[in-house]
Amino acid sequence: MAVSLPGEAETLRAVERLASDALPPGWSLRARRGAKGRRGRVAAKWTVYSPDGTAATFVVEVKRSILGRDVDDVLAQLATYGDPPIVAAPYLGATLRRSLADRGVSFIDTTGNLRLVAVRPGLFVERQGATKDPWPSDDMLQSLRGRAAGRAVRALVDFRPPYGVRDLAKRASVPLGSLSRTLDLVDREGFVTRDERGAVVALDWEATIRRWTRDYEFARSNRISSYLEPRGLGAVASKLGEVKWPYAVTGAFAAQRFTPIAPARQAAIYVEDATDVAERLKLRSADAGANVVLAEPFDPVVFERSAVREGIEVVATAQLVADLLTGSGREPSEGNELLSRMRADEDAWRV
């Protein structure tokens, strides 16, 4: 039998126990539920006492559920009470916890995710709880894993707002249902701004890509096979410059076409049929010492909105940065460097 989502009273009791147990030795917590603040009643006020008797008071707001897009409104309301806020809920997702931490706001959920911070007395307590929502909603998309979600993310990021959902689905050849569900998840995370008619007028594309890479990973999401080109990557580049069949390079080999930080040691190439391409390029199958990776993609979207750079077809910039961020070795660092370039010149890569 499924356990139902805790109510606000049950949540408050649970987080009080968790917070008390998480305090350092000699510290204590006194809770007043339904306390009256300067601007009305709040769920609770917590006073945390250090061993020398110095105290810090927090105003606690309990939500049965809270979305990323609600954070600003919740914090604006809590700011009227004067004391530092604590946001509490049955479960707080990773993106929401990060958003609260970036704002310097304490939080706690019933699974044990906890961050309590006070300046005076000096206090910093952080604990890790559940990484997945124990009470997911059946009618909401919970993950960006898979073909449909990846294709929808690429559409949302590649195309510059404003756009309506139906118009974007048609423009990007994405099923309307897939795009709507993906947009709803991104909206719940707080990455979307919409007008009164529901059209998207702004998108935090970097946060959307980073959210995608929590569920997408180059080596896991695509079908990978490894090969050796004995003459090195220069020979790979020369061969690719002559081919007529679909392909797109990604990873460090592609990133060099943007920012040549260091020579790439391996070429990652999206292809439709790895066995056929290996024969065409005269590559040797290799488990160890491979310098070419052929990837049969999670979706043909990896070939869309690509561009020729230095005579080689390179994946769209949003796809490249996702592949780098989920790659190995120095690739995540190269992904962050590419993100900086993307922020500096959106016109260079958004449609």
The gist of it:
The protein is of the alpha+beta class. The protein has helices at 8-22, 71-79, 94-102, 147-158, 165-172, 176-188, 205-212, 218-221, 233-240, 251-255, 274-280, 317-325, 331-344, and strands at 28-33, 36-37, 40-41, 44-49, 55-62, 85-89, 106-109, 114-118, 123-127, 192-194, 200-203, 223-228, 247-250, 267-271, 284-285, 292-296, 307-309, 312-314.
Folded structure, characterized:
This protein has helices at 8-22, 71-79, 94-102, 147-158, 165-172, 176-188, 205-212, 218-221, 233-240, 251-255, 274-280, 317-325, 331-344, and strands spanning 28-33, 36-37, 40-41, 44-49, 55-62, 85-89, 106-109, 114-118, 123-127, 192-194, 200-203, 223-228, 247-250, 267-271, 284-285, 292-296, 307-309, 312-314. The model has no long low-confidence stretch (mean pLDDT 91). It is an alpha+beta fold and 351 residues long. Helices cover 34% and strands 22% of the residues. The chain folds into 3 domains: 8-127, Trna Endonuclease, Chain: A, domain 1, CATH 3.40.1350; 147-212, Winged helix-like DNA-binding domain superfamily/Winged helix DNA-binding domain (Arc Repressor Mutant, subunit A, Orthogonal Bundle), CATH 1.10.10; 218-348, Beta Polymerase, domain 2 (2-Layer Sandwich), CATH 3.30.460. Helix 2 links the parallel strand 5 (55-62) and strand 6 (85-89).
